[in-house]
Amino acid sequence: MEKTRLDPISYRDAMSRLAGHVQIITAADGSERRGVTVTASCSVSDSPPTVLVCLNGANPRNEIFTRSDSFALNLLGDEHRALAHAFSGRDQLDMDRRFALGQWTQLTTGSPILVNATAAFDCRLIEVKTIATHLVLFGEVVDVAIGPSRPPLIYVDRGYHSL
Description:
15% of the residues lie in helices and 45% in strands. The chain is α+β, with helices and mostly antiparallel strands and 163 residues long. A hairpin with a 7-residue loop joins strand 7 and strand 8 (113-114).
């Protein structure tokens, strides 16, 4: 059976219609910190509590997420648009300038936790799968911080929106 390959541009155009809650995944290794804006994450299980996050594997700076053995998933509210944009890398700010835009703390693993995130999941890395261009990180949630309930920041049609 012959397979046809879908045009990547058509695929990305269709996927732009899939709304996703905006998050910043963070990790730390010694004094090195990294954070990246993502929308591709979800719950895997509640026993044990487990999440997965998809992250661009082609960027060599993302290697910290596998090296550090932990990460945090920080869920953003509508008031975090500038922070989401900064951590997307579009403005090419260095990590120190990105992290200076928010207030950060730590929970159990030492990964950066956004103080006013709507929720933050502190995770111990338990498995990494490489699928095509991306790393799929599986993390056991070892701690959480729950912020005030407020409108989530959503990314759809290549822009930020709120509910």
